[in-house]
Design a protein that fits this description.
Elements: H1 2-57, E1 74-81, E2 88-91, E3 95-97, E4 101-109, E5 116-126, E6 129-133
Antiparallel strand pairs: 1-2, 1-4, 3-4, 4-5, 5-6
């Protein structure tokens, strides 16, 4: 009788420990993906700042005149990294990062004609559905 009780207690304990380990591994993987997504989103904003600053120094429009954003317009852009200067370009193809994430840059017109709102959104798929970080 004591053996059955001991085996049951050990079985329940091992099952609980196993469940806890699996839960910790899943949460850790989710946290890693969230951290990567936040880094990719920040990188997208930095690329737009780089384009703005480097083009301004060369006396070009920040977007080299490629975008016409007026009124209440909104545009979705994708970035393409190149090997030669200026190292980043706008692309019409969705940007894939690490074959897991996709990044899009959304430009929104503001009330001030000299400014725009820039949103960098990174998306990826998880078991629970599509996740986004902006």
């Amino acid at each position: 009788m004591e053996v059955i009780i001991a085996v049951t207690v050990i079985g329940v304990t091992l099952t609980a420990v196993y469940g806890l380990i699996i839960s910790v591994i899943n949460v850790n993987a989710r946290n890693i993906r969230n951290l990567q997504a936040s880094d990719y989103a920040a990188e997208g904003l930095e690329v737009i700042r780089f384009m703005r600053d480097s083009n301004w120094l060369q006396n070009y429009s920040w977007d080299r005149g490629e975008l016409a954003l007026g009124g209440d317009a909104s545009k979705t852009l994708y970035l393409l990294e190149t090997e030669v200067a200026p190292y980043w370009e706008f692309s019409s193809e969705p940007e894939k990062l690490d074959d897991v994430f996709s990044r899009e840059i959304i430009l929104n017109a503001t009330d001030n004609k000299n400014s725009i709102e820039v949103v960098s959104r990174v998306s990826w798929a998880e078991r629970s559905g599509e996740k986004n970080f902006s």
